[in-house]
Amino acid sequence: MSTRAPAAEPTVTLRPELAARAEIDRSCRAPVLVFAGSAVFWLVAGSLMALLAAIKMHTPGFLTSWEPLTFGRVRPVHLNMTIFGWASMAGIAVLLWLQARLARARLPFPNLLVAGGVVWNVALAAGLVEISIGHGTSVEWIEIPLFWALGFAAVFAVVMAASLTMFGRRKVVHVYVSQWYLFGAVLWFPFLYLMANVLIHGGFTSGTTAAATNWWFAHNVLGLWLTPIGLATIYYLIPKVIGAPIHSYHLSILGFWSLALFYNWAGTHHLIGGPLPAWLVTVGIVGSVMMFVPVVTVGINHHMTMVGHFHRLKDSPTLRFVVFGGMSYTVVSVQGSLTSLRSINEVNHFTHYTIAHAHLGVYAFFSMVMFGALYYMLPRLTGREWGSARLIKLHFWASALGIALYWGPLTIGGWVQGLHMNNPDLPFLSIVSGTIPYLWGRTAAGVLMTVGHCVFGWLVLGMLQPRHATEQATQPSGVAQPGEVEA
Amino acid sequence: MSPVYWVVLGVVTAFALSAVGALVWAIGQGQMEHFSAGARSIFDAGEPVGTPTDAFPGTARRGEG
């Protein structure tokens, strides 16, 4: 446990920079905890739904007597719980805190943001009920009906206003690279979300145009929302945790601007082989291949920053998760660029390979970075220490081994499945049967990850308990340490 | 060809142009100069360069500042 100091010591005066940071963290406390706590709840719930869906893939008769538990509803419920519940709410929590830290400004509109957290949860819960009772839209990643989707859009507007206000009040002249990434997320994605919902659900699209809009949006959930937040977090936390600036600031800036230019073109590579104008798909492929530029710059930069500091992975929970996430970003992005090539896509399309790839991005990269960020943030916001180092390590290894077991076999199984599907001599049913061992592996991996999430949920629950008057605060950013007190 | 494709392409282009606009603004504001100082802008006297700020509970201080 860290060096301790009294929780409420009336005579203590912190050094100015510590007091300022403590004040910034304090201003974030309520909104960030609402979003972070909700995110972890949806993570655990979404994991259970994922397990259910995974079991149904190899045992299709499992729990099918009640319609809400059939695969066609459980799977989108899992997706929406994890993307809009876990990933987006954790992302907003980290985004708000990180931006306040970067601007060295208090978080504005705390009450409005807390209300936004409530609205988000209500809209999501209502949307999930709609999907469960058969009122989902059946448009992947936009399954929640438009009315509830507008609830998310309203919260995005509040988050955007808070973000711009903090930037306007910033006390640091230089705009750090993480801030650029956060702007990418908070200024582009809400427009994209609203546009996709209105175009698809407003009756402006049908058939192939709906598919093109759908996959332009769905790919950019990762590209313009989760990726910028994840990379912003990595660029802040690795230097802060190891106490060293990033290896090449030039590369980091090049990485951001190239991502800003190329990523949002990439979505139509999901429709290779589909009945769309060829040029539209080719635009997506070109955008995807150009993504090699930001990916290589980010990969080199993260690795070189860590050189000489890898031993710190033993000591820091945050660093373990964030570095794992950063390495996964490189792998998933290179895989994604290669997968967009027509010659490769004709094998992996419509197979489990794509599912493994999506989980590598959203889980191995983004979720692991968010875990690391929450391990760093929550002690500083709550004034308490994590309950158990052993449980943190259990969470890490269950998640890391779980996603490795998920991605590896399912990638191989999916590729074999694709090769077989391209062979007209093989009966389709035998190809489906051939995937079953890989699907059992997927379920085993899901059990591991769910165990990790339950452990994480337990640890977070301990952090969110109200502190007793006699309990002392541990060392988060603003609590005085010996030698740090002025008077 | 459906006008929806042009709407999507228009928004994609608008995003790219906004990135170019932000880049021009950043250059005009001097954000592309003094990169070394920029890289150190997340550190301060309370959490200076050379000071690790995270550790497992029970193993070391979580942050030196």
Plain-language structure description:
The complex is a heterodimer of chains A (487) and B (65). Chain A has helices spanning 16-58, 71-103, 110-132, 146-168, 177-201, 207-242, 249-262, 278-290, 292-306, 317-339, 342-348, 352-382, 389-421, 428-434, 436-464. With 487 residues, chain A is mainly alpha-helical. In chain A, helix 2 packs antiparallel against helix 3. Mean pLDDT of chain A is 91; it is low at 1-11 and 473-487. Chain B contains two helices and no strands. Chain B has helices spanning 3-28, 35-39. The relative contact order of chain B is 0.08.
Topology:
The complex is a heterodimer of chains A (487) and B (65).
Chain A: H1 16-58, H2 71-103, H3 110-132, H4 146-168, H5 177-201, H6 207-242, H7 249-262, H8 278-290, H9 292-306, H10 317-339, H11 342-348, H12 352-382, H13 389-421, H14 428-434, H15 436-464
Helix pairs in contact in A: 1-2, 1-3, 1-12, 1-15, 2-3, 2-4, 2-6, 2-12, 3-4, 4-5, 5-6, 5-7, 6-9, 6-10, 6-12, 7-9, 9-10, 10-12, 10-13, 12-13, 13-14, 13-15
Chain B: H1 3-28, H2 35-39
Kindly estimate the percentage of residues of chain A that lie in beta strands according to DSSP: under 5%
Number of helices of chain B: 2
Which descriptor suits the 3D outline of chain A?
globular
Distance between the terminal alpha carbons of chain B, to the nearest Å? 61 Å
Residue runs with pLDDT of under 50 for 5 or more positions of chain A: 1-11, 473-487
Which residue ranges of chain B are poorly predicted, with pLDDT under 50 across at least 5 consecutive positions?
none
What is the H-and-E element order of chain A? HHHHHHHHHHHHHHH
User: Greatest interface and its residue counts?
Assistant: A-B, 75 and 52 residues
Quaternary class? heterodimer
Question: Helical percent range of chain A?
Answer: over 70%
Rounded to an integer, what's the Rg of chain A over CA atoms? Answer: 23 Å
How does the major sheet of chain B shape up? Answer: none
Percentage of residues in strands of chain B: under 5%
Mean pLDDT of chain B: 84
